[in-house]
Amino acid sequence: MFEKAALLTAKTLYALAIGVGVIWLAWLCLANLPLWAAVLMFCLGLPLLALAAAPIAAGGALLAGMVVGVGTLVSYSFARKARSGD
What we know:
Blueprint: H1 2-32, H2 35-84
Helix pairs in contact: 1-2
């Protein structure tokens, strides 16, 4: 139960964080540069963004996944006690 909730939350948040970073970089390039320069900067900037942001996004997703997993474990424990009548 804990592993499923933590893993699903961490994977989802990691994908969202990386996706938002890619969309932000594309918007930044397209909004401020001519098309040829935007394509060039996006191709050069995306690997740099991935190198810098991937560890931060993974750490944040791991922490959030652990918090959700603990919350699921605690709520499951309370629900189990209520059903058993202890």
